Amino acid sequence: MAQYIKICFILVIAYTYIVGGSKNKSKNKLLVNRETPGPGCFCKLNGEVDDCQCKVESLDSLNNDQIYPRMKSLLSRNFFRYFKVNLHKECPFWADDSRCAMKNCAVEMCTQDDLPFGLKEEEDKESENKYIEKAQSEDCPTKADVTLGDIDTTISKESQQAFKDWTKYDDAQETFCELDDDTTGNCDYVDLLLNPERYTGYKGESPHRIWNSIYNENCFKAPDQSGYNSQSLTGMCLEKRVFYRMISGLHASISIHLSHEYLFPASTCYGTEKWGQNMEEFLRRFDHEQTDGRGPQWLKNLYFTYLVELRAIAKAAPYLEEEGYFTGDDEEDNAVKEGVLDLLNVVKQFPNQFDESKLFKGNKKEAQALKEEFRDHFRNISRIMDCVGCDKCKLWGKLQVQGMGTALKILFSGDGMGPQSTVKAGSKQKFQLRRTEIVSLLNAFGRLSSSIHAIEVFRRMIS
Question: What's the pLDDT tens digit per position in 185-212?
Fold first, then answer.
């Protein structure tokens, strides 16, 4: 009996050693893969980001530990969750004959009852003036002062003139995308939390035509390159490389969202659809072997786009610190302000910012011509978003392109250029952002942040 107990004891020790060793090996494998990415999707996700001084590892740490949790909390607040957009525009480039009829492509619009008090139509007529005047004077109307049941759709002469002044002012600034005219009845508020960006089933010729038009007709490329699968930037100047990497990074970010929030069909007739991570879809889009070696570079371009928008937020920090974030709810507005200040404190302390002062150097006339071409190409891409056949895809495409355009507007505005320069209200150029620009800027950056966080999720799943 004693001999039997001894044998059992030895077997238990051996089993514990084997299982423990396997767990440790698995853990060590994860650490090795994280620090030395190796082959597959992540083989280029280490070292310096192209055309920048920042390392991928530093951005992973900054984003996943500090930025992502703050963005997730901040973007759930009323000021940032309600986005006003025109989804009814006609495609200006071709007949839009491929509308998505699937239920997941539909966008749920907000009614007046859904909106915070400060965003209701009664307030819309004066909202832009309120932003000019900081939107929070003591004589703002209270809920008791406004009859919410009767909506006055007229616009006063003063407001009409203010909107015209806004248009002239915007045209005079470095605008990189076409903003929807939210003074008309064609724009609707959308609750972004109720209409999340994820896989809808929209695929095939229509989205291929969108991206092909963006890359082939509006992206700078080397003479021997064509199509959005090309990635050779040999012989291209810095400005053209920056443009391509920003668009490629945005494309990669959207692809990650679709893989991370993928729609799995019901397994039975009585089952329900489920959303979740689709590793097969992620590998199809980014694996080294399945993309002829291009996928890993597309992932790295995401980090470049992240750095550009991070720098824009840092440069606009003095302006954003003074913003009121008005929704009509003092407690909510104060919470948003505190959240923004907390985020900006983290962003400003990051040392390796993108340096926009390196762009458009050299011969002044040639540099100005290249800058105008850069801006025209990007404005054209913002128009292409109106050709997207899926309303939910169009919503998020317009938002993210507008956010990137706002970032570029910030980078090339203000009293100076370079890592130490800032923009603020009251500067020499009288810099100004509309509410829709602030909302799109932070939400677009939030999408990039969530993509980098999702990369870590996929990395762990693969490991």
Answer: 789 999 999 999 999 888 888 889 999 9
**Strand ranges (DSSP E) for 27-165?**
82-85
Question: Which residue from 41, 50, 61, 39 is spatially nearest to 303, judged by alpha carbons?
Answer: 50
User: 89: burial class by Cβ within 10 Å (0-12, 13-18, 19+)?
Assistant: middle
Strand (E) or helix (H) holding 451:
helix 435-462
Q: How far apart (Å, rounded) are the C-alpha atoms in residues 174 and 413?
A: 7
Which residues sit opposite 84 in a β-bridge? 189
Cα 185 to chain centroid distance, Å, stands at 26
Enumerate the β-bridge partners of residue 48. 55
Name the 3-class secondary structure at 153.
coil
Q: How far apart, in whole angstroms, are the C-alpha atoms of residue 77 and residue 56?
A: 29
Paired tokens of 78: 């009323």
pTM: 0.81
* CB 102 within 8 Å of CB 201: yes
Which residues, 6+ apart, have CB-to-CB distance to 400 below 8 Å?
A: 250, 253, 254, 440, 443, 444, 447
Please give the average per-residue pLDDT across 47-67, as a whole number. Answer: 94
Query: How many residues are recorded in the chain?
Result: 463
